[in-house]
Design brief:
Length: about 250
């Protein structure tokens, strides 16, 4: 009896920092994980993903060390980029909640995650290397094609000074959608939203200050509400990312 499609185990996915696949030799931490942790052997196949849309179907031709092997690239596939959603988030204080948020946002598939410092910030430093490792693990687990860019903390006023264009997406469907989460604002008018890029500001659980909200409005950001409930930062970030990804996909 031939195996059904559900009986076939999907090939494992590994990550490469290089934008181009190695032509014959593969080495490093991911290779070590492949050979020593997952115990893959000569002749076995896997996917090598560069986080920039390129997925390479590879075969191990020869193991040359604990973290080295020769591979043969069988085929290469390039996926189209995900909808252009950029999140600007005041990170939660909890390291665990922060990591969980980055993991889920990476699984959803957005373009970038930038971290902001606001008046009510509870965290002023980040371990970006740790968050990058979490994001890579989520990329492999979800079999996504693109790794979101992660940017260090910057002051919200400093970020807003770089913004100048007003939000005119209703007149020009190619314009950037610029929104700031605010519980007292109106819900999103989903049927009217059109665009090719979205920039979203998500504040701390106490919200942005009146001054910060006004500064964002002056730079073209429109307030939006996710409902009457007070959501945690990570919940609001994940829900907003998913909603705007669907808007840009439609």
């Amino acid at each position: 009896m031939s195996p059904t499609e559900t009986d076939i185990k999907p090939l494992p996915v590994f990550y490469t920092h290089s934008p181009k696949p190695p032509s014959s030799q593969w080495e490093g931490k991911e290779c070590f994980h492949c050979l020593q942790v997952q115990r893959h052997r000569q002749g076995e196949k896997f996917y090598l993903n560069n986080g920039k849309g390129q997925q390479n179907l590879c075969e191990i031709t020869k193991i040359t060390g604990k973290d080295k092997c020769n591979i043969r690239i069988i085929s290469t596939h390039t996926s189209p980029p995900p909808p252009h959603v950029d999140l600007y988030i005041v990170p939660p204080k909890s390291q665990e909640r922060l990591g969980w948020m980055v993991e889920k946002l990476s699984e959803i598939g957005i373009r970038s995650i930038s971290f902001l410092e606001s008046h009510r910030s509870m965290r002023k430093q980040l371990n970006l290397d740790r968050l990058k490792r979490i994001s890579i693990a989520a990329l492999k687990q979800s079999r996504a094609s693109y790794l979101p860019e992660l940017f260090p903390i910057r002051n919200i006023s400093s970020y807003l000074q770089t913004q100048s264009s007003p939000n005119v997406q209703f007149q020009n469907p190619t314009q950037e959608l610029k929104y700031i989460a605010n519980p007292s604002s109106a819900p999103l008018p989903f049927s009217q939203l059109k665009g090719k890029k979205a920039s979203l500001l998500i504040g701390p659980e106490g919200g942005f200050t009146t001054k910060e909200f006004k500064e964002a409005q002056d730079k073209g950001f429109i307030g939006f509400s996710l409902g009457s409930e007070i959501l945690r930062t990570e919940t609001a970030s994940i829900l907003s990312a998913y909603l705007f990804k669907q808007i840009l996909d439609s």
